[in-house]
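Protein modeling request. Please complete all fields; requests missing the sequence field cannot be processed.
Requester role: graduate student
Desired output: 3D structure, token encoding
Chains: 1
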Amino acid sequence: MSQTSSTPVNGHAADSDVLLHVANVYKSFGGLRALSEIDLKIKTGSTHAIIGPNGAGKSTLLNVVIGRLPPTSGAVIFNGQVLTGKKPHEINQMGIARVFQTPEIFPDLSILHNVMAPAFARRDGAFKVNMLRSVGRERQIREEAEQMLEDVGLIDRLATHAGALSRGDKRRLELAMCLIQRPRLLLLDEPTAGMSRHDTNTTIDLLKRIGGGDMTKVIIEHDMHVVFSLADHMSVLAQGQIIAEGPPEQMRADPRVQQAYLGGAA
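Delivered output (266 residues):
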């Protein structure tokens, strides 16, 4: 399959309940194959966890989905449209947002302006710093940003510079920046990494509340407490391949899954 196609691929978007289809994707770096024969379908409205040992290819897979890495072969189809070959900002504007392992924020801007910035981009098609010069007149966007910050527990720190936040709070800020874009698909790359158990549980509760049936969530996570608290379906990666898929309780007892973890890093 050509990875430069800009139209839907016949047969890949046939399932009306599938929002994202990673279709027979391979990814190699020189002689190293990072992903092989990945065929992954994410159903609309689901919370789908992708787990696997370190080096299994989880972050590489997400980077292929959002256009940061081109697949060596195969295609990614979102809502019936081929993403492969599109730039990351184009994919974002189609309705996909991602919370990264290392939060991507504007450290020199206030928390409030960090959340308002992607709302301007959603409205105007691109983000320019000079948009912030008139934020006082942008009442609707400000109110929306404040609601997002209320949801993630940062409403009391509106004027704080984002760079001064703890890592856990930066994660919550980036989540608010994603949510204000109203994505159809939210990709969360280890959203609780580095958090205390209390902060992890707070984040779990938040992720349970947001989106409802209108938002599909894909979570990459090592913490099985998080996975089993949130996911209704799981895919297990090992050595760049999906070795098992199914409901969480089924995956918990699957010997292939146990071997992937007990056998060490892929």
